[in-house]
Task: inverse folding
C-alpha cells in the first residue's frame, strides 16, 4: 500500500505468554494514519502471528472487552489511535493490570465480577411493592446521584488503574463499589444492604481517594465520588446504629 | 475487629488530634513567648489535674491513630498481614507517652 511506505513502520511490543510465564515480542507494523490499537492487533494476527490471543467484540467503544495496558496506561484498544500513544514509533501492549492472564493479552475477568457480587452491585428491592415501576422526578437528588454512577460498562480500566487494588487483595475496587452506589440511590431499593456490603473488609473505606479510577474511566464516571458517597452514608448509618 | 471499625477509630482520633494539637501548639507558643522556665512550666502542669488528663488523652489518640495508619501502610506496601507488631507498636507508643505525662503530673 502506498501509505505504508509514507512513514516508518511502528515497532509494537506485545506481551505473549500464559499464566505462568511470558515476554514481550516485537512486531513491525505499517504506520497507517488513523489506525487504532485494535487495528494494529488485527494486522499482527492476520499477517505476522495467527496465534496471537486478544479479546474484542463491538470495535466501537460500547462493550469494554478490549481494555489493555497500552504504553503503560489502561485504555480501550478500539478507541486508542496508534499515532496518539506511540513514542518514537514504539508501542507496548500488555494485558490489563491486576487481572490474571489466560493467554497473551486475554485476561481472566472472573475475580473482577465476583467482587461486584460481594459489593452487592445490583438492585435489591425493599419489598414486594418495590418491584413495580416508581415515579421518580428527573431532578430528584437520588435520581441525580444514581445518574452520575450509571453507564459503567464494566471494562475493568478503573480496576487496572487502582493502586489500592494491587496493594490489597481484599479490596472490592472502584467498578463494583460504583455499581453498589448506583443501586443504593434507587428509591425502591433496600438501601441498607449496599451499605452493609460497603463496610466489609476490603469495602469502600479501603479506598485512599487517589482518584486514578476517575482519571482513566473511558465513560467519564467519577468513581472516587461514588466510593466517597458509600463511605459517608455507611459512616453516618454506623454512628446512628442503623447499619 | 473489622477494618471498618479501625477506619472509624482512625477518623475519630484524627478529629480529636486536630483540637488537641491546636491547644498543644498554643501552649508551646505561650510558654516560649512568656518565656517560662522548666520549673515554671512544671509548677503550672502540676497545679491542675486537667493538664495530665489533657496530655493523657493526647497520647492515647496519637498512639492509636499512628498504629492504625502504619498498619495500613505496612499491609499495602510491605505485605505485613499480621497484627501482632501493631499491638506492640501501640503499647510502646502508649507506654512512652504516658511515661512523659507522668513526668509533668
Result:
Amino acid at each position: 500500500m502506498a501509505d505504508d511506505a509514507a512513514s516508518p513502520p511502528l515497532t509494537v511490543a506485545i506481551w505473549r505468554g500464559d499464566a505462568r510465564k511470558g515476554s514481550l515480542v516485537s512486531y513491525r507494523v505499517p504506520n497507517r494514519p488513523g489506525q487504532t490499537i485494535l487495528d494494529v492487533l488485527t494486522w499482527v494476527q492476520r499477517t505476522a502471528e495467527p496465534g496471537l490471543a486478544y479479546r474484542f467484540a463491538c470495535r466501537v467503544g460500547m462493550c469494554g472487552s478490549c481494555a489493555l495496558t497500552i504504553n503503560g496506561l489502561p485504555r480501550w484498544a478500539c478507541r486508542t489511535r496508534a499515532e496518539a500513544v506511540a513514542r518514537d514509533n514504539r508501542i507496548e501492549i500488555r494485558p490489563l493490570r491486576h487481572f490474571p492472564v489466560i493467554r497473551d493479552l486475554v485476561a481472566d475477568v472472573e475475580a473482577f465480577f465476583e467482587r461486584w457480587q460481594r459489593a452487592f452491585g445490583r438492585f435489591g428491592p425493599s419489598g414486594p411493592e418495590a418491584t413495580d415501576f416508581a415515579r421518580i422526578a428527573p431532578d430528584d437528588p437520588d435520581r441525580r446521584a444514581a445518574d452520575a454512577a450509571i453507564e459503567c460498562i464494566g471494562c475493568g480500566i478503573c480496576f487496572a488503574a487502582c493502586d489500592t487494588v494491587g496493594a490489597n487483595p481484599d479490596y472490592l475496587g472502584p467498578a463494583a463499589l460504583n455499581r453498589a452506589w448506583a443501586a443504593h440511590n434507587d428509591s425502591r431499593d433496600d438501601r441498607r444492604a449496599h451499605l452493609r456490603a460497603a463496610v466489609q473488609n476490603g469495602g469502600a473505606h479501603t479506598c485512599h481517594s487517589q482518584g486514578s479510577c476517575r482519571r482513566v474511566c473511558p465513560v467519564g464516571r467519577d468513581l472516587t465520588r461514588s466510593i466517597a458517597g458509600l463511605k459517608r452514608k455507611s459512616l453516618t448509618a454506623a454512628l446512628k446504629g442503623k447499619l | 475487629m473489622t477494618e471498618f471499625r479501625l477506619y472509624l477509630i482512625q477518623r475519630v482520633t484524627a478529629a480529636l488530634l486536630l483540637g488537641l494539637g491546636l491547644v498543644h501548639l498554643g501552649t508551646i507558643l505561650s510558654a516560649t513567648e512568656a518565656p517560662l522556665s522548666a520549673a515554671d512550666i512544671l509548677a503550672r502542669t502540676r497545679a491542675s489535674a486537667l493538664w495530665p488528663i489533657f496530655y493523657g488523652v493526647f497520647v492515647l489518640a496519637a498512639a492509636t491513630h499512628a498504629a492504625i495508619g502504619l498498619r495500613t501502610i505496612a499491609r499495602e506496601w510491605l505485605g505485613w498481614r499480621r497484627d501482632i507488631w501493631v499491638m506492640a507498636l501501640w503499647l510502646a507508643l502508649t507506654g512512652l507517652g504516658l511515661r512523659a505525662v507522668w513526668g509533668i503530673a
About this structure: Residues 11 and 68 of chain B are 10 Å apart (CA to CA).
